[in-house]
Amino acid sequence: MGHSAPDARxxxxxxxxxxxxxxxKTIRSEGYFGMYxxxxxxxxxxxxxxxxxxxANDFFRHHLSKDGxxxxxxxxxxxxxxxxxxxxxxTTPMEMLxxxxxxxxRIAAQKKLMAxxxxxxxxxxxxxxxxxxxxxxxxxxxxxxxxxxxxxxxxYKGLGATLLRDVPFSIVYFPLFANLNKLGQKDPSVKAxxxxxxxxxxxxxxxxxxxxxxxxxxxxxxxxxxxxxxEDTYSGILDCxxxxxxxxxxxxxxxxxxxxxxxxxxxxxxxQVVYFIGIAEFLLDMLPxxxx
Length: 292
Prior knowledge:
Elements: H1 19-30, H2 39-64, H3 73-121, H4 139-150, H5 159-182, H6 194-211, H7 213-223, H8 237-248, H9 257-275, H10 279-291
């Protein structure tokens, strides 16, 4: 989910001591609304992303249970695997654009700080020159530039790492949600109350988010096109994993885990409640009618 918040020790690669330090420094350098950089991309693409994920999971569960038998845990995991694979069609470009917008703010703040330090150290009698304020790119500008320079593949940079995160997430999330949700069903033929679905989505979402956080850290690093001072470049998933392990230690793979859990818990809780109102059944009922 965007930039992962670093761990409790100083991190030269990202310049933050912990999540609180990241929050304070971002607000100081970019203002309160700097925390919402990339939100427009999220608002635009998060709905189709969740729709694909939830509908795909129901589709696969529906087909894997055609023999009339109860879904085994393995089949539930297979359905989740299929859902996670389908969602990257939207997730990869969404994450790519969001990360570039967040990076633009971070790099601009870093340049502003360096310019200020240069002014203080300048001994020129005439005074230091005014710092040049660079315009920050918009999502549309970034999209056009990526399409112009790299084609559609530019929007899908980090696809492998996104699959590495989203497929395991769905494998953990959907079976866990289904089994937690069953605990609130008084009868198998009756839906669980909405608050049970909400709480099940929250617990399953936060658990899955923490479980795959190392993959999210790797994905975010790979999709960052702009590099700050002293930040590493990576040639692939293995190279990124190796460098993070060697330079920042194993705890670096848990950076931002609690932030992801706090965001994803209510997100999936709300998504499941809305979806379980009846959208899944409506979509699945449309399949045979469409074929007739």
